[in-house]
Specification:
Elements: E1 5-7, H1 12-21, E2 25-28, H2 34-39, E3 47-50, E4 60-63, E5 66-70, H3 75-80, H4 82-87, H5 89-96, H6 101-106, H7 109-115, H8 122-128, E6 132-135, E7 139-141, H9 142-145, E8 146-148, E9 151-152, E10 160-166, E11 170-177, E12 184-193, E13 196-202, E14 210-211, H10 213-221, H11 246-264
Parallel strand pairs: 1-3, 2-3
Antiparallel strand pairs: 4-5, 5-10, 6-7, 6-10, 8-9, 11-12, 12-13, 13-14
Length: 265
């Protein structure tokens, strides 16, 4: 990897200051994506700001009808949390299906959401549950946060502090995993909320996670797997690679969506 200046702040304020002062600074949370990228010399940041000691970014709690998770909370803690299992069990199951034990004990929810990998699981939860991403500067609605592959609404000197998930009436996440990486070839989160039904799809979109509005409308009228009969997601704009063609991913979306609805009932 290339040389860089290393920082280990103890507070959000110190982390934000180090990031703002750096010529080309990068935040590292669990390092699941950034560290391999650095080792392959695919990135050359001037500064690396490690968030591991920022305790205020960790933790899980409840607040005004929402489940609030600190950005530096690892996947294993989300999966094992009694609070998460009670309020949004679908989120606990999603976290428990990420990668392998090593990844789940190092990777963090904030790092995953900020990275916005097109095959990651958490973006489907954030978008499908209508979460709010809280940063050191502002609150960002999920519908405004994801802006394309590996691209978000975060500003260069902005970091995620917490993510607030409204507790749904029912929700389920079902994915078809890559057998090696456990990333989603296609993953679908269906949530029945007070504001209507939301369906978020990860792993399939060339631009990353997206909502399936036609499915949402059908499920709002009849929340059952049969309501999705005849709804086909066009393969145009979907990923096609060695793991699955765009046509196969389009087919998988329908299958995974029906399974998610069935798991909600």
């Amino acid at each position: 990897m290339y040389a860089f200046d290393y920082h280990q702040p103890a507070s959000v304020a110190d982390a934000a200051a180090a990031l703002a002062a750096a010529a080309d600074g990068k935040l590292v949370a669990g390092g699941m994506t950034l560290i391999p990228t650095l080792k392959q010399r695919l990135a050359s940041p001037s500064d690396l700001i490690d968030l591991a000691r920022v305790d205020e970014l960790k933790g899980i709690g409840e607040e005004s009808g929402s489940l609030v998770i600190g950005a530096m909370t690892c996947h294993a803690d989300v999966a094992a949390s009694d609070i998460v299992r009670r309020s949004i069990p679908a989120l606990a199951r999603l976290a428990g299906g990420i990668g392998d034990p090593q990844v789940r004990n190092r990777g963090t929810i904030g790092g995953s959401v900020a990275n916005n990998d097109p095959a990651a699981d958490y973006p489907a939860a954030v978008l499908g549950l209508g979460a709010t991403i809280r940063t050191n500067k502002r609150d960002i609605a999920a519908d405004d946060f994801f802006q394309g592959m590996f691209t978000t609404a975060l500003e260069p000197d902005e970091l995620i502090t917490r993510i607030a998930f409204p507790v749904p009436q029912a929700a389920a996440y079902v994915k078809f995993p890559n057998p090696a990486s456990r990333y989603a070839v296609v993953g679908v989160l269906v949530a029945k909320t007070g504001g209507g039904v939301r369906v978020a799809i990860t792993g399939a979109g060339a631009d990353g996670v997206f909502r399936a509005t036609e499915m949402e409308q059908a499920l709002s009228a009849d929340f059952s797997p049969k309501a999705l009969d005849g709804i086909a997601i066009p393969s145009d704009g979907l990923n096609g690679d060695i793991h699955a063609s765009s046509e196969y991913r389009a087919h998988l979306i329908g299958v995974m969506a029906k399974r998610a609805v069935a798991a909600c009932v």
